[in-house]
Amino acid sequence: MMSKRKPVPNHREKRCTLDDERCTKRLRRTWKTKLANNLEKGVEDKKKPKFSPNIEEKRMALLLVLACVLCGVSYGELVGEKSEIANVNMNKEVQDLGQFAVEERNQSMKEIAFAKPELTFVEVLEAQKQVVSVTKYYLKISTNKSGGSKTYDSVVVVKPSSKQLLNFTASPP
């Protein structure tokens, strides 16, 4: 009687079982060589398709960016750019910020030195606005100080929940 021999696995056939160590090693070797050959040819795994925009998609993206830049420039609303505030005398928010700046300056002077005379707010003469992560206001403020008037430059930062005076200096003559 002849003994039943296990058929020798052929790597081209799918009859290999997980138990057959020689077959799995052979299949792994062939899979690795196929993968290496594909990578050398520039063929990637089908699960990760490579995105390569064509010329039309590149042109459309460039036109979109250009349109956004031109629209922003025409309205002066670029982030980080200072813009003049029109009708400062009639703008209640700007006048309130000027009043706040003078009050904060007076408060800090009281804490530092008792002898400094207090300033009296008159009006904001000029104002610029800069939008970054917060809104900065650059103000030129007219004040009265013991009978004479003087102008000051100040920077006020406005956050959604608070206001802060960054700078308050005398304007150059």
Report on the architecture of this protein.
The chain has 173 residues and is an alpha+beta fold. The chain has helices spanning 21-41, 55-75, 92-112; strands at 82-84, 120-131, 135-145, 148-158, 163-170. Strands 1-2-3-4-5 form a five-stranded antiparallel sheet. The longest helix is centred in the N-terminal third of the chain and has 21 residues, at 21-41. 10% of the residues are buried.
Secondary structure: elements and pairs:
Blueprint: H1 21-41, H2 55-75, E1 82-84, H3 92-112, E2 120-131, E3 135-145, E4 148-158, E5 163-170
Antiparallel strand pairs: 1-2, 2-3, 3-4, 4-5
Produce a short descriptive summary:
This protein has 173 residues and is an alpha+beta fold. 36% of the residues lie in helices and 26% in strands. A hairpin with a 4-residue loop joins strand 4 and strand 5.
Keywords:
Cystatin_sf, Cystatin domain-containing protein, Nuclear Transport Factor 2, Chain: A, about 170 residues, Cystatin_dom, 3 helices, single chain, thiol protease inhibitor, elongated, alpha+beta, 5-stranded antiparallel beta sheet, 5 strands
